[in-house]
Design goal:
The structure is a homodimer.
Chain A lengths: L11 H18 L3 E5 L5 H6 L9 E7 L2 H8 L3 H7 L4 H15 L3 E7 L14 E8 L2 E8 L4 H21 L1
Parallel strand pairs in A: 1-2, 1-3
Antiparallel strand pairs in A: 3-4, 4-5
Chain lengths: ~170, ~170
Amino acid sequence: MTDALLGEPIDQIDLVELAGVVQAAALARAVSVATAESCTGGLIGHLLTEVAGSSAYYIGGAITYSDALKVASLAVPQETLANHGAVSAQVAVAMAEGARHAFHADVAVAVTGIAGPSGGSAAKPVGLTYVAVADAAGHDVTRYQWAGDRSHNKLATARAGLELLRRRLEG
Amino acid sequence: MTDALLGEPIDQIDLVELAGVVQAAALARAVSVATAESCTGGLIGHLLTEVAGSSAYYIGGAITYSDALKVASLAVPQETLANHGAVSAQVAVAMAEGARHAFHADVAVAVTGIAGPSGGSAAKPVGLTYVAVADAAGHDVTRYQWAGDRSHNKLATARAGLELLRRRLEG
């Protein structure tokens, strides 16, 4: 796990370009990809599907905005949610592993965070976000503390998710 | 069912404003909302969650880009997919009904279409899209034939989904 802070504006166009790099990496390795998104609410799936031909590797995924859907759609254990909270490294990893299994994907990326402006606490401030990726060999998870507004934090999280996915695919 | 054609540019900012109207309508009626997205790939969920406070009514949903996920996540019958094709009024309604049940939502909106540039046929050209909404009282479904590029067709579909949802909520 590493920390990162980000403040500069993020352009969706640049993220679509990054999604194109992800697509090329996935197609070159013939792997299928699924997504499990909480705080981004579907933004990562939207970006991946802006690229023509994405249906050749992107099978879809879940938008698990509520805890109930994290359990129902991704089989995140209630115990993990209760013990660590929805915004935690443990839940991010459980979401990624759960998406891989539930959707029969080779690789899955998952994000969970507090986009803001409300929902933060002293222990878990607005902007705190965990991004995880899982494949048959294991998983990676990274912690971020974004400093932007709701919209910026979503874009920053999507970018981090796409980057982690790209590195895992190319890695 | 009605047909509609759309060519003018669509701004995501305007769609976030529409998502705010949906949110106000859902909160006023205390109903929960789920999404089931094929061709938009998560764009509707992204737009809904651009509005602060969306977690008070939006529980999440599924991005069912592949047919396999339409069956696994939304219980769309294999027979419906085989008989009518993934881009059909029947599948759009089955996705909306399936999302309502699978995610225990009061209302669900579903979209399925051919964003392009490939994937079209004489019978089902690029831009053909079905948008459905379902609640305890029944469902609505609308057919569209968009004339834009991939990105435009996704935005037009998201706008149609948000509009259908708004009208159903405002009743």
